[in-house]
Write a structure and sequence with these properties.
Blueprint: E1 17-18, E2 23-26, E3 31-34, H1 35-45, E4 62-65, E5 70-73, H2 81-106, H3 111-140, E6 142-147, E7 151-158, E8 161-168, E9 172-183, E10 186-195, E11 202-204, H4 210-225
Helix pairs in contact: 2-3
């Protein structure tokens, strides 16, 4: 297993690893780290500390970063993978569900039995609505990510629907590629945010290319480790929700 410095992401050369003393030394950071803890972190994250990566050429991710703010708008979904699967599942599920619902409404069954069937079908109809929203998000949805010294905001948007998730930046322990979901028994990776107190990471960006995922994971990791500790003089507080300015310049999307 390759061990990397949790501060800068540099791989430890063999001469800087002392198994007997349980110490790995980073010459760039001038710091020593317990090998046992590094091995545990590597195993939990799957990728450990992200490697330095440059913005891929031709990326459609709209990205801005300054000392206090980082923001990224991911490209809209495409008719592939998760979106196509959910669309097929939604059509299949809702066809069966509404066959029963319409049969109960317009059939010749007694009134008591009719209402019993309708009440029984309510959760199935709700599941169908959720799968429809997921299918539309997979095909046409957009995710945006924003972060400053105080808060992290992730917004999922499809047409008029918006779902916001907020987290405290000080609770972000590390960033690594992590599994978002499985497709055909194969893990689909995304940018994973390992938050204090959460058993599983917060994952976004599963629709990006592998190069974009590695680059964005590095940017978030590098931004987080460069932030000063929260204090009265530290800018914070997300403003303008999920929408940065059109020119994507500076950190206007947060205070």
């Amino acid at each position: 297993m390759k061990l990397k410095c949790p501060s800068c992401g540099r791989e430890f050369p063999p001469e800087d690893i002392n198994i007997k003393s349980d110490i790995a030394y980073c010459r760039k950071c001038s710091q020593g780290f317990a090998i046992s803890e590094l091995v545990g972190a590597e195993g939990d994250a799957g990728e450990g500390v992200p490697e330095r990566a440059e913005m891929p050429g031709g990326t459609k991710v709209r990205f801005t970063r300054d000392r206090w703010n980082l923001a990224a708008i991911l490209p809209r979904g495409a008719p592939r993978g998760f979106g196509c699967f959910m669309l097929f599942f939604t059509i299949f599920w809702n066809t069966i569900t509404w066959t029963f619902v319409l049969g109960a409404l317009f059939g010749d069954a007694p009134d008591g039995f009719q209402w019993a069937v309708l009440l029984f079908m309510v959760p199935f109809v709700l599941i169908g609505i959720v799968t429809l929203i997921l299918a539309l998000y997979g095909l046409f949805g957009r995710c945006s990510f924003a972060m400053n010294a105080s808060e992290i905001l992730i917004v999922y948007k499809v047409f008029l629907f918006r779902f916001r998730r907020r987290y405290r930046t000080p609770d972000l322990e590390r960033v690594a590629l992590a599994q978002g979901y499985k497709q055909n028994d194969s893990p689909v990776m995304g940018v994973g945010l390992f938050m204090k107190g959460r058993a599983s990471p917060v994952v976004f960006g599963t629709g990006l290319s592998d190069e974009e995922k590695r680059w964005l994971a590095w940017e978030v990791h590098d931004f987080k480790r460069g932030l000063p500790p929260p204090g009265p003089d530290t800018p914070g507080g997300l403003v303008r929700g999920e929408r940065p300015p059109n020119d994507m310049s500076g950190g206007h999307y947060m205070r």
